[in-house]
Amino acid sequence: MQERVKLTDAQINKDLLRSMEENPLWYWLLVGALGLAVLVAFAAVAYMFNRGLGVTGLNRPVMWGFFITNFVFWIGISHAGVMLSAILRLVQAEWRRPATRAAEVLTVFSLMTAMTMPLIHAGRPWRVMYWVFPLDWARGVYPNVRSALVWDPSAVFTYLTSSILFVFIALIPDIAVARDRTTGWKHVLYSVLALGWRGSVRQWKLQLIAGILLSAVILPIFVSVHSIVSWDFAAAVSVEGWHSTVFAPYFVIGAVHSGVSAVVTVMIILRSMFKWQDYIRLEHLDALAKLLIVVATTWFFFFVLEFLFGLYSLEGPEIRLREMQVFEMPWAAFFVAFLVCSYFIPVPMWLFRSVRRSIPLMIFTTVLVNVGMWLERFIIIVPGLARKQGLTFTWGGYTPSAVEIIIVFATFCMVSMLVLLFAKVFPLIPIGDAKEGVVLEDEIKIGKVKVPAIMRED
Amino acid sequence: MHELHHPPTPVYWGMTAQELTQDVVQRHASPGRQFWAIAGVLAGLFALGVIGFILLLTQHGVDNRREWGYFATAFAYIFVTAQSAVLVSVALRMAKAHWRRPLARISEMFAAVGLFNFLLLIPLLWVLPPTDGRRSIWFDWPGRSPHLWDTIAMGTLVVLGLAILYFASIPDRAAVRDQAGSEPSTKWRGNVQQWIVLNRGLAVLGGFYFMLLIVVHMLISVDFAMSLIPGWKDSIFPAFHALNGLQSGVALILVTMFILRQTTGLRKYLEVDQFWGLSKLLLAISLLWFYFWWSGFFVYWYGRTPAEQGVLRYIMFETYWVPFFLAFVMCFALPFFILMWNIVRKTTWGPALAGAIVLVGTFFNVLRYYVPAFAVEELSLHSLEHIPTANLPSFIDILVVIGALSGAVLTYMLAARVFPIMSMWELREGQILQRVRKLMKIEVKVLAKPE
Amino acid sequence: MANKNVLGLFDNADTAADATDGLMEVGVNQEDFDVLTGSPYPEGAFGEKTPVHHIYVFPLIGALMGLSVAFLLTSGTQIAYPIVTGGKPILSFPAMTIISYEGTLLGAVIFTILGIIFESRLPRARLDPYDPRITEGYIGLLVTCPEERLDAVDQALRRGKAVDVIHEGGRSFRA
């Protein structure tokens, strides 16, 4: 069942530009609070740079902790954007329309946030330039491309550049709408950004091709980014549990799982913040939840493969690691929480139509998924390192320090703040796409019912 | 929404629902002499295969595992291609793709081939060694666990596939009987209740088939290939095996559609739309083929442990490098370069050509796992200490493979005598849910998206 | 004689499509008019000419350039600073493939973006004639014709139930 509402173009403009035109007090209070949290984290980072990495909980043998977990988590969230907008564009799914922009913007901001994590983790971020770019001409010392740590920057940089450009190209027609409805300095700004868009036949045709073509080019990047992140781990033989061939697709599909869930969360929040009930409708949540069932189940299959073939080796250290993950506190608690949160609660719930169409339950399940997926990264990264050495007296543990907790918490505030600020400047639901949906909407009368239908060109 | 100048018109495939039903039923009733001639040739080839099988059994016996490599390849190949082909209709029905309608039955009919393939599994159960004292996914379970559970899983899969074929064709078989004027033997009348049960039932059966197929891919690939090569611990392999299955399933349907188009009067149902839709799927899966292969290879290459290098040398770069090279070219490189052009995708020959190439490539891909796996003698080690020499096909092997493949095709053709090859009820539903209408100065297709 | 632009505004897509027939009668060819809309319409719905473009060449060129640069960079730096790590060869193709792959796709994306902007004939300094009502759902028929036929075109647009007809330079829209 679909709840289509007939809307005129003028009404669409008014509704979707609402986030830019109205200035409610709660908005600025919210942005201010989030900004404050980010400032506190800046102070924490400055303190850490000044005192050194000793102020974190990192110590031998666990040298990758909260920062790297959080890096992988945000890279994962960033996979929502392309997953939704590219794949759904390519398969011409109608229900993608309200979700694409929010997903792409979430991609951009979560990628930016993810990039800060290894920089902070490096402790001396200004040196990173020499590790990843061939800059040291004077001494002729260049980065080692056989090291997995050089691949990440190249992948993330490519992905970030592409997503920003993708968002910009898709924004041009919407910027033109803003241009036509503003005056003064805003009008000048939007005029420059709109590049002189008039909506001619050629411009629209290219705009549509751009959506498809860029999706097709960005999809292979999207797959490569999280694969490369997974090879940061899988290329290492020395850490038990990391050297697994399934890691790349396992990470990618896990990223899609958490990313799409995050998009649903964000869409529901935007819907109630900016009164977009006519655009983000229950049928969209329903379709996204069905997609999530498939994604989550595929992800679970890969998880089973990863775990099963860890045991398959029948080698002592690997078995020891799995025992620690599953039976030793606190890891056992994390392990159970991770599985229950990311699969065993949400997926059975999504099987029911009433859950898929319930706003509070969808918020609950999608947030739960991301709690679970954060824990997943944590129990992949830390236990392996804690049991890295062959001799038991070199085993270690890890407890995050306050500095790490503050910084990780602030990344969530930063992404939220950036999305909110974006909504102030640009429309978060693509206006042109929404209007195209209205043009293509149709219905077929069969006997006594009218079935919603859609026009397709061949 | 626009005020309509012109309401949508309900004609599709250029005929009314009655004409469509009559057309398909008539073609189903009289297959023609050519059909029986081909069936006769296939039966002859199958008989040769049976002779090959008897020779294999009497000359080598079930204890000489190495000699059964090609037999296992034939079994795995039919499993990978035909039994996965059923999934195409299941998946497209779930996605509510209207263009699937003409190819739905073509895909489901491959469930019948599963029944034939189950026969090939039986002798392999005697060849497969017990799992005692070696790595397997059965760990401490009794040594004959794979023999038992693989048979149960495979048997359930075959039954599920046949159930899908049987239920999906109830309305069509009723139509065939109605047209022949004979007494209706089923209770099918097509009332609202029956349609609801049919649609829900197909969705549930399809979901189970999907999940069980993945599980069987995992069981077959690990028990009959991976666990027989010491040191081969490759967590992506079952998923890669299943992906190759989906790829070759799509390819198989493309080739079948092309042959049906050329040899029967079904040309007007199997249009470019169907080829175009499947070709996009095939292109995407061919890219994923590379990705999954690369994920496995890359981690092995980086690991550089003796166990990993042994496996890479054995099934990829030294002993069986020829089938690996052919598989790589024919499952990834060629289909990618053929299908990346939309002009080629929008033909019937382009996707069919790519499909044929993928089918051959899949054969070599399956071969490079099962033939080497059956040739390793010492199974209790954790790495390959001596790499066995290549097992080249003997005359008997060739007979067996040709016989098995002919038997599979013959089964498909005989199934087409029982079940109409066009899903008439889905076509008629398509006529109701897809229309053509004028929008200002052009004609557009209008697709209903009911929930 | 110089060509001039004139823009007819319609409040309804069907009226605009019908009005193009009237334009044909006064000698306006398919090449001489363009349709300005606030949302994409199916191709050819207004009876307009389908624009020709070469967008698909751009990603291929970009990919080729990106691949070359990335390959030279990865191989060059390894040869210039050869240190064996992990027992792997100095020129390790699997490792170089990763960065070459990213380079290829980065090149493809950047060239695609440039191609889209170029093929859309953007950026464009002057909008004239234009009307902000187009982004409110009005349809604009933009006709290019010689100066002496301006009146005939104007008449034809008004006969086709145009809500407003705007001449080049007639009303300036700040852009």
Task: Describe what this molecule looks like in 3D.
The complex is a heterotrimer of chains A (458), B (451) and C (175). Chain A has 458 residues and is mainly alpha-helical. Chain A has helices spanning 9-16, 18-21, 25-51, 66-77, 79-90, 100-122, 128-132, 148-180, 184-194, 201-234, 247-273, 282-312, 316-327, 331-344, 346-350, 353-356, 359-386, 402-425, 431-440; strands at residues 441-446, 449-456. Chain A has 19 helices and 2 strands. In chain A, strands 1-2 form a two-stranded antiparallel ribbon. Chain A is globular, with a radius of gyration of 23 Å. The relative contact order of chain A is 0.16. The two termini of chain B are 20 Å apart. In chain B, helix 3 (69-94) crosses helix 14 (349-374), helix 11 packs across helix 12 and helix 12 (321-339) packs antiparallel against helix 14. Chain B has helices at 17-29, 33-60, 69-94, 104-108, 110-127, 145-168, 170-180, 192-224, 237-263, 272-303, 306-317, 321-339, 342-345, 349-374, 395-418, 424-433, and strands at 434-439, 442-448. Chain B has one domain (17-447). With 451 residues, chain B is mostly helical. Chain B has a two-stranded antiparallel ribbon. Helices cover 42% and strands 14% of the residues of chain C. In chain C, helix 1 (13-25) crosses helix 4 and helix 2 runs antiparallel to helix 3. Chain C has 4 helices and 4 strands, in the order E-H-E-H-H-E-H-E. Chain C has helices at 13-25, 57-80, 93-119, 150-159, and strands spanning 3-10, 33-36, 139-146, 164-167. Chain C has 2 domains: 3-50 and 127-167, Alpha-Beta Plaits (2-Layer Sandwich), CATH 3.30.70.2190; 57-119, no CATH class. At the A-C interface, helix 1, helix 8, helix 10 and helix 19 of A face strand 2, helix 2 and helix 3 of C.
